[in-house]
Write a structure and sequence with these properties.
single chain, 150 residues, mainly beta, two-stranded antiparallel ribbon, 10 strands
Length: 150
Amino acid sequence: MRPSSVVLGFAVFAFACRSVTAPDTGGATFAYDFSTGAQGWTSGSSDYGIPIEPEIDLVADWRPLPAPLDQTSHALYIAGSNLSGDLFMFYKKQVDGLSPGRMYVASVTAEIATNIPHGCFGLGGAPGESAYVKASASNHEPMRVLVGTD
């Protein structure tokens, strides 16, 4: 069985503000400055076979920026071993204060730092060229679900 999900995903070191602007409510903005803490964001992973779950070594926490960046500042960190060639690592958070039945426009701004090399060989694709950052919003909490068999 494979867990999969659709979530707000930061697949690398993310440090910045995330803003969601709600034009129907006078342009309300929800900003998250990860330099001050994780602010309730939770991590997870999906898109791998259940037998290899213990081996993906997911690490997700709030820590100082790595050198050569300013090590007195902190950010959300996420990393894992992509044994399936399809590992999806993510952070998610519920945004409160929005009205049901309304349409909202979301805008995301983020600064990303990564140590994924460019131009290297990798099974399933080159590490630098096969890593992506994705962002999404949903009116339902994204959840991992078991799909199919391995």
